């Protein structure tokens, strides 16, 4: 069965960095686009970033552009989200999803919490 397992969340100070990982299993990872989404307390889901199956292109929400970097290692069936210059408004539960964009997300991980606070 398809499984997506996120890791790497935690507490960071404003201006700090964190890196998230998502280990995929149960499907041919290299054939699918992957995305990250997040949900802050009291807010709806926000798509954060996506990467195509062959690493050919990446896209970012305006709120994170220039601060976050998505990457993937198809040999390790893993997608990453490297977050820099974190802001308190980045505090959210971060999800790894299969597909590009919220409307194409057919599988979700359990989420990993990121808290940005001094």
In brief, what are we looking at here?
With 118 residues, this protein is mainly beta. Helices cover 0% and strands 49% of the residues.
Write the layout of secondary structure elements.
Elements: E1 3-7, E2 10-12, E3 18-25, E4 34-39, E5 45-51, E6 58-60, E7 68-73, E8 78-83, E9 92-98, E10 107-108, E11 112-116
Parallel strand pairs: 2-11
Antiparallel strand pairs: 1-3, 3-8, 4-5, 4-9, 5-6, 7-8, 9-10, 9-11
Low-pLDDT runs: none
Report how far the terminal alpha carbons are from each other. 40 Å
Tell me the β content. over 45%
Shape, principal axes of CA atoms: globular
SSE series: EEEEEEEEEEE
The helicity comes to under 10%
Average pLDDT number: 96
Tally of DSSP helical segments:
0
Task: Tell me the radius of gyration.
Answer: 13 Å
Structural class category:
mainly beta
Summarize the biggest pleated sheet.
7 strands, mixed
The strand count comes to 11
The oligomeric status of these chains comes to single chain
